Amino acid sequence: MGDDSGHDMGHQKQQGFTAMNKKSAAPEHINKALSLDGSVAALKAYYATWAASYDSDLAGDYTGASVLCHFFQEIAFGSREDGASVLPEPGALPTLRIADVGCGTGHVGRVLYEQGARVIDGMDLSPEMISQAARLQINGVCPYRALYADIDLNQPLPVQWQQAYDVTFCCGVFTLGHVHPTALNHLAAITRPRGLVMVSTRTTYYEASDYREVSDQLVASGVISLVARLENAPYTQDSDAHYWAYQVN
Ligand SMILES: C[S@@+](CC[C@H](N)C(=O)[O-])C[C@H]1O[C@@H](n2cnc3c(N)ncnc32)[C@H](O)[C@@H]1O
Hints:
The protein is α/β, with parallel strands linked by helices. The protein is 33% helix and 23% strand. It has one domain (24-248): Vaccinia Virus protein VP39 (Rossmann fold, 3-Layer(aba) Sandwich), CATH 3.40.50.150.
């Protein structure tokens, strides 16, 4: 994307979904998640109770992980309109070091593994969600190389991960009651220069938070560049999301 100076939805070149899907009311488990106060204690307690039924509750309802991973493939390997590719050719996917922050039960890891990724580390605040991810099997193999619990994205991430990943994903976490927009900085910090940061923001979160200001500030200060964005793309039955692809400078 040529203009990376801001996020003006009206002017910036972007891939867009022109028609918003008709939305249903949010189910109770999603409403409860969105009304958390953002504290570690509240988030951990809630996801401890939701972990076991998270996948079945969201079955057929949640497309966010799939949309973000397919957006990644377009951005990373050059099927974009402008022909630009950001990473080496698709053959490099099995060796790319990928972080999935806020991995939950592993929806992003599953799609990435099916796409061919083989070096995927998952991190999450909730030990119970991480336990579910550890049980995930694709053809008898867990898609994650390693899984880490008790990782709070509202804090700087561990020093040993700084610039350690080629691509960092964060899907379903920039949502009401979860993380601050400044967490975007922590995702950039664990990604190597010229690597990608792939993020979803639920539309209600984008509108209610200062995500746009934080993102603009990180772009203006040269920490990251905005490569592309999907606006109002499918996410859950009750809400769309915006999807963001940044390159770390
Ligand atoms: C809606 S789930 C999304 C999970 C997964 N990425 C997906 O696409 O299905 C949100 C996840 O973010 C995690 N989470 C919430 N707050 C967090 C924080 N401050 N730091 C790290 N993870 C957090 C939760 O434990 C939960 O697993």
